[in-house]
Amino acid sequence: MRILALGAHADDVELGCGGSLLRWAAEGHEIVLYVATDSAYAAPDGRPVRTAQTAAREAEASARRLGAQLVIGSFRALELTFAEPLNTTLAALFEEVRPDLALVHHSADTHPDHRALSLATSHASRRCHRLLGYASNWYVSPDIFDPRMSVDISETLEEKLALIELFESENGRTGGVWQEHARALAAVQGRRCGVRYAEAFQVVKYRL
Predict the structure, then answer these.
(1) Cys staple from 47: which of 43, 57, 153, 207, with CB 3.0 to 4.6 Å?
(2) Are 135 and 184 in contact (CB under 8 A)?
């Protein structure tokens, strides 16, 4: 199976579905990672927090750990919009990769970049008949993340946390909170489906 995991920024995919990707990679499936933006951002005072070069280096390290192909898009972080440039880029990506399964930010995510990529992926994936949405943050929204499919990641959670740790720029900013969040969320999702740790997904479409 060929799996395409799309994220707006470097580390989104690892946070949202890294444990599942690790499991599927170990099972011999082919993984392609797509990071839509340069993932660069600065503090409110203008001080750089993560440069595009740093984000690319961290994403490449994660892809190597996963044994995945990495594609980094040309869009700028915090400027992603659901419009024709993104739609045509993703349509070409889906045509080239031809994934059996695609994963992207869930449709109720309130981060503008995440929401734009989710919408554009739904638009561009018309020939891909399995699309799942993952949660990569905890933003509150009037809509909810409604997970209906789960993947047991009990054997890969620690590796997922190691993947997240590779993104030193983000971990330096947040003090390691994402690892704590990932473990706690995986425990909650695991309890829901009767395993120790799990990742849960919104089902956009899934043809058997």
Answers:
(1) 43
(2) no
Q: Parallel, antiparallel, or unpaired: how do β-strands 101-105 and 2-7 relate?
A: parallel
**Mean pLDDT value of segment 53-72:** 98
Distance, CA of 123 to CA of 30 (rounded, Å): 23
Show Cβ contacts of residue 198 under 8 Å, excluding neighbours closer than 6 positions.
150, 151, 152, 153, 154, 186, 189, 190, 192
Closest C-alpha to 137, from 8, 23, 31, 33: 8
Indicate the pairing of strand 198-206 with strand 69-75: unpaired
Structure tokens at 189: 């999702």
Range list of H helices, 27-156: 52-66, 84-97, 112-124
The more confidently predicted of residues 116 and 140 is 116
Q: Round to whole Å and give the CA distance between 63 and 25.
A: 11
- Predicted pLDDT at 49: 86
Q: What is the DSSP letter of 76?
A: P
Helix (H, G, I), strand (E, B) or coil at 75: strand
**Alpha helices by DSSP H, the chain:** 12-26, 52-66, 84-97, 112-124, 157-165, 168-174, 177-193
pLDDT tens digits, residue range 111-125?
A: 999 999 999 999 999
| Tokens of residue 166, six digits | 């590779």
Rounded percentage of the chain residues whose pLDDT exceeds 90 = 88
